[in-house]
Amino acid sequence: MTHTADQLIARDAEFCWHPFTQAQTAKAPLPIVRGEAEFLFDAKGKRYFDAVSSWWVNLHGHCNPVVSEAIKAQLDTLEHVMFAGITHPAAIDLAQALVDRAPQPLKKVFFSDNGSTAIEVALKVAFQHWSNLGLGQQRRKLLALQGGYHGDTFGAMAAGRSSGFYDPFKPWLFEVEFLPTGTCACTEEEALSSLDSTLAQQGDQIAALILEPLVQGASGMRMMRAEHVAEITKRCQRAGVLVIFDEVMTGFGRTGSLFAAQQVAQFGGHADLLCLSKGLTGGYMPMGATLASQALYDSFLSDDVGKAFLHGHSYTANPLGCAAGLASLQLLDNTATQRNIERIHSIHQYWQVQLSTHPLIENPRVCGTIAAFELKSPIDAYGSASSQWLREAFLDHSIIVRPLGNTMYWIPPYCTSSDTLEHAYQTLLKVLKQWEVTQARLFSDTELF
Ligand SMILES: *Cc1c(COP(=O)(O)O)cnc(C)c1O
């Protein structure tokens, strides 16, 4: 089979259905044939900087030899085995490595396939926990934050309903109580007082709260202070409400610490359940994990099989995923990786100051290796098209980005060199100049008609 760019695009159009894509109006996809470190190469041999870590999953660069070798070694030993009634060394090693590194009180690991399934597992464990205690009818409600995104399966969609991605499915989503957040909709004090009144009115009917600690990803990289997150968790737990941290995006060093939960723990806040995926395998294999406290695990112990967690996936604890996860964690432990995370953080911080006075940029912000800001647009109606315009403008400069509306962000692999990242910021300045010209032209067109 030949693989010229045009042939790949033609065959893709014939057979593939892409995520989050309106095929009728979308540009042809970019055919990528190879990856190396922070770069991807297209079918013509052109090199691109993967500035969003391939949808936030890649930590150590593409085709990192340590992760690749670990997967190859596992592949020649045991590729897969079911995880009910059977266990295997890679799963035990990875579960222990996660528990060793996770903050209190997380002690047990339930493996699944991706971020959405890690969320479904957490929601089902929370609901069944109350059911096992005979309080299933009483504590039925879920609390979530406005602007939260938790994935695309039904429970995850219900918890992220406020993001507006799910209009066709609304009739099938269970009810969720949404709280305003101290990110942009209101102040932290207002968010907390709204939480207080919800807890006072219906605290004993709520099973759990779910939130993305420190950074709400898909709704626009909205950042929260660790102290504020800790305050939310404490108030919920005082009312007996379980707390679920969705660290699918924030996990594995993205926010500076291995888990965002560690920064929250410094202010005395903790989660009863913690969901991981994306960076879990360094971006090499699809896998999810839900960590639970010993107390939650114990509430499923009984002579009654009906009180067990009757949930599982065919590929639960897939050995190849576990091997990749272990290799990735070992790389994360290296001081070289830690230094890279700090290096990326300080480049972001330097540019945050530079961009803070730029006339076309609003609210530049940084959390660990994540940097984000909004682009100002004088024409409101243009907002929805900004993302597409930005993507193409950066692609012309060999940089792959995927803005969320007019929110631009960098979330690079940790191996990204300072030169590559500096060049991306310099390119941003060029793209902003183009943006200004385009906006001015659009503006004059609007006046003409
Ligand atoms: C991506 C994401 C998910 C969903 O993960 P998938 O692997 O895409 O199902 C859930 N929560 C957060 C915070 C995410 O960023």
UniProtKB/TrEMBL annotation:
Entry-linked InterPro entries: Aminotrans_3, Aminotrans_3_PPA_site, BioA, PyrdxlP-dep_Trfase, PyrdxlP-dep_Trfase_major, PyrdxlP-dep_Trfase_small
Main subcellular location of this protein, as a coarse class: cytoplasm
Name of one Pfam family that matches: Aminotran_3
Catalyzed reactions per annotation: (8S)-8-amino-7-oxononanoate + S-adenosyl-L-methionine = S-adenosyl-4-methylsulfanyl-2-oxobutanoate + (7R,8S)-7,8-diammoniononanoate
Binding site for substrate: W55, Y149, K278, G312, R402
Pathway terms, separated by semicolons: Cofactor biosynthesis; biotin biosynthesis; 7,8-diaminononanoate from 8-amino-7-oxononanoate (SAM route): step 1/1
Modified sites of kind N6-(pyridoxal phosphate)lysine: K278
Residues annotated for pyridoxal 5'-phosphate binding in this entry: G115, S116, D246, H313, S314
Positions in coiled-coil regions: none
Compartment(s): Cytoplasm
Keywords of the record: Aminotransferase, Biotin biosynthesis, Cytoplasm, Pyridoxal phosphate, S-adenosyl-L-methionine, Transferase
EC number in record: 2.6.1.62
Names of the cofactor(s): pyridoxal 5'-phosphate
Site (Participates in the substrate recognition with KAPA and in a stacking interaction with the adenine ring of SAM): F20
Role summary: Catalyzes the transfer of the alpha-amino group from S-adenosyl-L-methionine (SAM) to 7-keto-8-aminopelargonic acid (KAPA) to form 7,8-diaminopelargonic acid (DAPA). It is the only aminotransferase known to utilize SAM as an amino donor.
Subunit-level organization: Homodimer.
Family to which the UniProt record says this protein belongs: Belongs to the class-III pyridoxal-phosphate-dependent aminotransferase family. BioA subfamily.
Protein name, UniProt field: Adenosylmethionine-8-amino-7-oxononanoate aminotransferase
Organism taxonomic ancestry: Bacteria, Pseudomonadati, Pseudomonadota, Betaproteobacteria, Burkholderiales
